[in-house]
Write a structure and sequence with these properties.
The protein is α+β, with helices and mostly antiparallel strands. It has one domain (about 5-85): 3-Layer(aba) Sandwich (Aminopeptidase). The chain has 2 helices and 5 strands, in the order E-E-H-E-H-E-E. It has a 5-stranded mixed beta sheet with strand order 1-2-3-5-4, covered by helices on one side. It is globular, with a radius of gyration of 13 Å. The two termini are about 25 Å apart.
């Protein structure tokens, strides 16, 4: 599952992206991410951003291999997080 949250007319944030543990490592996360990116383009967004916990190594690799670049680090709800962004062209 995953969702887009508007940030501005040109930017959206990916929220709540996850795959049930029984179905991880089968490419579903990459499919969800690609679908969210396509929908963002349809809606006119030019940039996507997201955050993930520093300890979520698999998620970080997914985003990095999909073209997301680190845009900062911080803390949310007691977790160290990494912020990522991607230009959609």
């Amino acid at each position: 599952m995953g969702a887009l949250r508007p940030v501005s007319d040109r930017m959206a944030e990916i929220k709540r992206m996850r795959v049930h543990p029984d179905f991880q490592r089968r490419g579903f996360g990459r499919q969800v991410l690609a679908a969210l990116e396509c929908r963002a383009i349809e809606l006119g967004y030019r940039t996507l951003r997201l955050d993930t916990a520093e300890v979520q190594v698999a998620a970080r690799r997914l985003y990095e291999t999909a073209g997301y670049r680190e845009a900062g680090r911080g803390e949310l709800a007691g977790f160290d997080v990494i912020y990522f962004e991607k230009s959609l062209g």
